[in-house]
């Protein structure tokens, strides 16, 4: 990476991130970071949540962080402050919702640091970057595991994650010519389909039921905030590649049973005395009515060990990925959020400095002469 030294920090907002960050750069940064974790040049930890009860028994406060960095490069921590609650969609799907202050408003910040000097470099709003890094991860899975010449995407969900996943899917497979999409709200799926047709020049089909998205799909993507799995593995056609966001972290049981090969981007280095760290995140809760103390395991982990290949093993040629067009494949990042955020934030920071964008924040606001 190019290096920049200066006497100022930058505040980089979502508009600037949107202007500067391409999906190609996002995917390249993620892939480089994943390989760095496997090869010992990148350190990261998975997300840790601190959960606190609020005065409303149906709402919980959650502080979440994840961090990572590269030797001789950059370090970053992503911080988010949310009030969490659940609601039920018109189709009966239970979703997890969040806000900061009031619904529709959110607080998430990435603090980027120079790992050579320890100097703070930037605060970056995480909204657009968050969507790009998740979409980019799905695109890497498609790049290495989807059938060559893949043409049809079947998608559950029509929000921001759906937008960035379509960017990454088409980056990985320019052969894509058709999208079939379903989401519970008709206006949302109609608008999304129209936007994708105009942006990508592809045919779009708005489906009236989730079952219809599997028809002829080379890539099936569940991109929702549902609290439970929304995929139906019985409907997957042979040769499909699966991407899943939400749903508690995993596809449904039937999808997992039918997967022939599973690509995991990697794993965060384990603490001393442990062979591996499988948790997607750890959560701490205080002793209070309705709360418990201890670690909470999300429904991730080192799944399907007999069918698993890591990105590093695939690149090195140590294990194969897809070996036939008939195989059903699935990809997911593993517990590498910290490795994602530092890598993509660094790309944004370098692009902002090169373009002379971002709001300047003097170093003296953040540095001191009192030893901490």
- Determine the structural class based on helices, strands and strand pairing: alpha/beta
What would the average pLDDT be, to the nearest integer? 89
Shape: globular
What's the CATH architecture of the domain at 147-266 and 301-334? 3-Layer(aba) Sandwich
Distinct helical segment count: 8
| CATH homologous superfamily classification of the domain at 147-266 and 301-334 | NAD(P)-binding Rossmann-like Domain
Distance between the termini: 30 Å
H and E string: EHHEEEEEEHEHEHEEEHEEEHEHE
- By DSSP, the count of extended strands is 17
The poorly predicted ranges are 273-281, 287-299
Helical content (DSSP H or I, runs of 4+): 25-40%
How does the major sheet shape up?
9 strands, mixed
From the 3D structure, determine the CATH topology of the domain at 147-266 and 301-334: Rossmann fold
Oligomer: single chain
How much strand content do the residues show?
25-35%
Can you identify the CATH class of the domain at 147-266 and 301-334?
Alpha Beta
Gyration radius over CA: 21 Å
């Amino acid at each position: 990476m190019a290096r920049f030294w200066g006497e100022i920090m930058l505040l980089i907002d979502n508009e600037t991130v949107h202007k500067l960050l391409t999906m190609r750069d996002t995917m390249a940064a993620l892939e480089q970071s994943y390989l760095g974790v496997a090869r010992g040049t990148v350190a990261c930890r998975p997300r840790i949540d601190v959960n606190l009860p609020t005065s409303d028994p149906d709402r919980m406060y959650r502080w979440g962080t994840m961090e990572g960095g590269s030797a001789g490069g950059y370090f970053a921590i992503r911080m988010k402050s949310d009030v969490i609650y659940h609601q039920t969609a018109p189709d009966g799907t239970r979703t997890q919702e969040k806000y900061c202050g009031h619904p529709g408003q959110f607080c998430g910040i990435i603090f980027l640091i120079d790992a050579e000097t320890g100097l703070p470099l930037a605060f970056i709003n995480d909204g657009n970057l968050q969507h790009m890094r998740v979409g980019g991860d799905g695109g890497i899975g498609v790049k290495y595991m989807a059938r060559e010449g893949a043409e049809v995407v079947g998608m559950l969900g029509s929000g921001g994650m759906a937008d960035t996943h379509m960017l990454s899917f088409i980056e990985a497979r320019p052969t894509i010519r058709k999208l079939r999409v379903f989401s519970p709200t008709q206006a949302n799926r109609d608008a999304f389909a129209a936007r994708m047709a105009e942006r990508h020049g592809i045919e779009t089909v708005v489906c009236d039921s989730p079952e219809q998205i599997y028809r002829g799909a080379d890539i099936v993507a569940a991109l929702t905030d549902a609290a439970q799995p929304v995929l139906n593995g019985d409907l997957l056609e042979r040769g499909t590649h699966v991407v899943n966001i939400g749903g508690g972290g995993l596809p449904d049981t039937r999808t997992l049973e039918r997967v022939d090969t599973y690509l995991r981007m990697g794993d965060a280095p384990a603490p001393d005395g442990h062979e591996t760290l499988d948790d997607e995140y750890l959560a701490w809760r205080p002793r209070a009515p309705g709360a418990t103390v201890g670690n909470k395991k999300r429904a991730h982990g080192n799944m399907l060990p007999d069918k698993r290949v890591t990105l590093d093993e695939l690149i090195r040629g140590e294990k194969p990925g897809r070996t036939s067009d008939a195989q059903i494949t699935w990809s997911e990042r593993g517990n590498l959020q910290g490795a994602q955020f530092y890598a993509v934030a660094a790309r944004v920071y370098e692009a902002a400095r090169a373009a002379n964008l971002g709001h300047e924040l003097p170093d003296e606001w953040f540095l001191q002469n009192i030893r901490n």
